[in-house]
Each structure stands twice: as structure tokens, then as C-alpha cells.
């Protein structure tokens, strides 16, 4: 896996980005960038929405935001998903800060985030 470009789009109410999920992993963690998506490993199986819930919980914890601020826009039954991060306040100012925070967890290698 190489560090490539994480594709992040600003929307009127926040940010949208892609994730690539590895269900049934040995532990929950953010692995880094995979193509244009954030690669996330979760221990939950891809059954009854368990892996999707774990992805949102892991991202929320890593970003320090409420899980309700994140939702899956597409890819509910796929490993490739599009995530929306709803941000309050001025979309452009808050969106820029949120984008920096998202990129910082990808590149930090600290906590649950590991870049490979």
C-alpha cells in the first residue's frame, strides 16, 4: 500500500470522502490511504450493518467528533464506501479545518491511525 491522494470533497454541509473497509480484521484501526480512499480495518463482520457501524464509530473516535456527524452515503453492502461528515458553522471555514483534521489523522501514525 502506498500513500496516495485522499479524495476529499467539500459539500454545502461538510465533507465527503471515500473509505475502503477490511471487515473481520484482527483489530480496529485506520491503515492509511488506499488509492483515493482511507483504508479502515474493523473486527466486525460484514453482517447486519455491524462493520458499517464500527467504521463510523472508529472514524468518530479518531476525529474526536460525535458518531452522528458521520453517515454512509453509498456502499452500504460494499467494501468501498462514501462517507459524509456533517459540519456545523460556516461550511467553508469549518470545512477547511475539518479537512486538515482528517488529513492529520491519516498522516500522523498516532493513536488508532497507522499509515503503511
TrEMBL record:
Segments traversing the membrane: 54-76
The entry's keywords: Membrane, Transmembrane, Transmembrane helix
SMART domains: DUF167
A GO-annotated cellular component: cytoplasm
InterPro entries recorded: DUF167, YggU-like_sf
Cited SUPFAM superfamilies: YggU-like (SSF69786)
Pfam families linked to this entry: DUF167
Family membership noted in the UniProt record: Belongs to the UPF0235 family.
Name under which the protein is recorded: UPF0235 protein ENS29_16495
Organism: Desulfatirhabdium butyrativorans
Amino acid at each position: 500500500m502506498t500513500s496516495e491522494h485522499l479524495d476529499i470533497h467539500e459539500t454545502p454541509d461538510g465533507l465527503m470522502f471515500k473509505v475502503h473497509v477490511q471487515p473481520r480484521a484482527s483489530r480496529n484501526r485506520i491503515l492509511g490511504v488506499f488509492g483515493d480512499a482511507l483504508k479502515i480495518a474493523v473486527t466486525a463482520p460484514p453482517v447486519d450493518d455491524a462493520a458499517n457501524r464500527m467504521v463510523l464509530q472508529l472514524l468518530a473516535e479518531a476525529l474526536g467528533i460525535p458518531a452522528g456527524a458521520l453517515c454512509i452515503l453509498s456502499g452500504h453492502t460494499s467494501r468501498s464506501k462514501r462517507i459524509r461528515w456533517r459540519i456545523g458553522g460556516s461550511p467553508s471555514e469549518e470545512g477547511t479545518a475539518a479537512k486538515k483534521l482528517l488529513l492529520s489523522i491519516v498522516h500522523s501514525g498516532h493513536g488508532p491511525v497507522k499509515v503503511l
